[in-house]
Amino acid sequence: MALAVNDLKVWYRTRRGDVKALDGVTFEVADGEIMGIAGESGCGKTTLGKALIRLDTRMKHVGGTVVLDDDELPLADDAAMRRHRYREVSLIPQYAMSAMNPTRKIGRMIRDLLSAHNVRYTEVLPELERRLKLVGLETDVLGRYPIELSGGMKQRVVLVLSTLLNPSLLIGDEVTSALDVSSQKAVARALVEFRDHGFVKSMIVITHDISVLFQVADTILVMYAGHLAEKAPAKTIISDPLHPYTKMLIGALPKVGDRYEEQQLEGIEGRPPSLLEPPAGCRFRDRCPLAHDKCAEAPPFREVSEGHHVACWAVS
Amino acid sequence: MLTLDNLDKVYRTGTFGTSDLHAVRQVSLDVQRGEVVSLIGESGSGKSTIGKMVLHLLDSSGGTMTFDGRDVTKLGFRARREYYRKVQGVFQDPFSSFNPIYKVDRTFETLRRSYFPRVTGSEWRSRLDDALAAVTLEPDDILGKFPHQLSGGQLQRLLIARALLLDIELLVADEIISMLDASTRIDVLNLLGELKGRGLGILFVTHDLSLGNYVSDRVVILYKGRVVERGETSAVFDDPLHPYTRDLLASVPHLDRTWDEVEAEEAERTQRLAGRCLYHEAITAQGRSLGEEADAADGVPDGVGLVEYAPGHFVGCFRKAAEEKCPAAT
Looking at the domain assignment, is residue B268 inside a domain? Predict the structure, then answer.
């Protein structure tokens, strides 16, 4: 398998104590799998993505291991991680398209990036041009400034440049957000195409938009307050969710065609708990209609049918 | 209640205001009491510009705007204040709508100072409680807190409560749910549905079609500042005619169908409408020829005009941008 994460804990140091943003997550991503991560803001999905590439100064690796292609990633060792970054694990951070250097032409920016990883620009240029064409861009974008491109074009450039060295794992954090639906579709389809062409082995796509995940992902992982709630094939998550949180989350999404007059959908009452002093046991307990005494103890994330993992006592 | 008639907006751009950007082209639409009208379009379609012109945050460059039969295209300071008693707006980012240094109560206090200086403290408090109850918020959970202590959904509902205190008749809701989490989005949408039931007219500006479809009675599809299609929500969504509307609907990520399935379903319609333009077909059927329609259709040029394809379902020329040629023109 491509990626195996075992009991990973990454906390944020703050003056008021540790924020347990990622508190013991265990999952695997198979070769060729596109796994989507969904959840509300503050559920730890972005922290998970960042932890696999670089811990910033506020982040602390508290425990757990990450194995990529039989190699354990030295998460806590910033210098040792450098060898893996970009070549093996590549991240498209949130708002990446807005973070391009406005004073550099796209081609020059890619040249800088490659030289930082000791790769010659001229060596990869033919491949770079081929891939730009594949995502529907002309090669003359390399001679343009970021301001001259639309959001969807920039996002596709970011996708091409972050996968130039064929990494094993690509993590895309909200890559389709803040785009119009037509560009969103183009970028989402490019993600799938890159996997199909083998430019990246596996992918983790992080977004709050579950309907996009349904279109691109093979499996969906639902997170809640730093814990895993459910992981299953994308179709199963949408049509037969088991965890009460997943059920309520899917139930709160209007489908095209749902009308307020005919059928009112319901949101989820309450807010996720503070992760500074999270309650013991199941973290969804306070908002869960099925909560009972047993939930004071954290439910294990176990496989209930093939490829379907759930962390809930109410699911047998 | 609110009627926009051939509303235009031209922005001056360029270093010395030398070039023009035609952001809204002769848009006509109306919002009635107890009705949600959605303005749907991508970025740059002019949907927010229309919302801002209705709220008088921007001046229009042409056309007229009437509210209950009164011309409100241009308003002086005093008249504008009266107008705001009836028309209010709520915007995308609830966090930037509040001043983070003050408690959220201040929003209500400033409103009281400017609009209700004679209302007594206890009377004001009971009105406030009513408004908060209408948006399903508990006063004790909300009052006395700072904006960062509340969730986006709560803040957004607070802003709607603020608008309700004025006893408004029209609410302009500009992308009010795009920054909220899925679990709270639906609460705000349901609230709009309920307010509509109580007689409020809502102009709902959005880029998200599934959300636009959920609450709205009628939709207006905008592209590059021009209305390309409008009509009853179900008519437009079940039978999209304009190429742009069809593209848009085929690009929406559905929860029950993949993009390929949607494209396959739409193949027949795409085939049937390829190379045609229902607008010009209707114009020709009326016995008018190309180029004549401007005089006949009340001076509205065919680039921005609409024809009634089915009762209550209007569609414009099948060209996409105003500068392009009509696909049926040979």
Answer: no
CATH number of B24's domain:
3.40.50.300
> Which residues have CB under 8 Å from B198's CB, separation 6+?
B34
Question: Pick from A41, A212, A267: which is nearest to B253 by CB?
Answer: A212
CATH H-level superfamily of A3-310: P-loop containing nucleotide triphosphate hydrolases (3.40.50.300)
List Cβ<8 Å contacts ≥24 apart for B49-53: B49/B9, B49/B23, B49/B24, B49/B225, B50/B4, B50/B7, B50/B9, B50/B24, B50/B205, B50/B222, B51/B89, B51/B172, B51/B174, B51/B203, B51/B205, B52/B174, B53/B7, B53/B9, B53/B24
- Residue A96 distance to chain B (closest CA, Å): 18
Residue B144 placed within a domain: yes
Query: Residue B295: what pLDDT?
Result: 58
Q: What pLDDT is recorded for position B298?
A: 62
What confidence score (pLDDT) does residue A258 get?
Answer: 80
Q: pLDDT at position A233, please?
A: 96
- Structural domain count of chain B: 1
User: Residue B294: what pLDDT?
Assistant: 57
CA gap B308, B300 in Å, rounded: 15
Question: If you average pLDDT over every residue of chain B, what do you get?
Answer: 87
Minimal Cα distance from A253: which residue of B? B182
Q: Find which of A209, A256, A284 to mutate to test the B interface (most B CBs within 10 Å of its CB).
A: A256
Q: What H or E segment, with its residue span, contains residue A107? A: helix A106-116
A267 vs A143, A230, A271, B180, B210, CA distance in Å?
A: 47, 19, 11, 12, 16
Choose from A181, A214, A250 for mutation: most chain B CBs within 10 A.
Answer: A181
pTM: 0.87
Q: Which domain holds residue B84?
A: 2-233
- Cβ separation B183–A258 shorter than 8 A: no
Task: Work out the pLDDT band at B330, boundaries 50, 70, 90.
Answer: low
Q: Looking at residues B58-85, what average pLDDT do you find?
A: 91
pLDDT mean values, one per 10 residues, chain A (316 residues): 91 91 94 94 90 89 93 91 92 88 93 93 95 93 92 92 94 88 91 95 92 95 95 95 94 83 85 88 92 92 94 89
Q: Provide the β-strand partners of residue A211.
A: none
Query: For residue B327, is it within any domain?
Result: no
Q: How confident is the model at residue B296 (pLDDT cuts 50, 70, 90)?
A: low
SS (H, E, C) chain B: CEEEEEEEEEEEECCCCCEEEEEEEEEEEEECCCCEEEEECCCCCCHHHHHHHHCCCCCCCEEEEEECCEECCCCCHHHHHHHHHHEEEECCCHHHHCCCCCCCHHHHHHHHHHHCCCCCHHHHHHHHHHHHHHCCCCHHHHCCCCHHHCCHHHHHHHHHHHHHHCCCCEEEEECCCCCCCHHHHHHHHHHHHHHHHCCCEEEEEECCHHHHHHHCCEEEEEECCEEEEEEEHHHHHHCCCCHHHHHHHHHCCCCCCCHHHHHHHHHHHHHHHCCCCHHHHHHHHCCCCCCCHHHHCCCCCCCCCEEEEECCEEEECCCCCCCCCCCCCC
The answer to whether residue B280 sits within a structural domain is: no
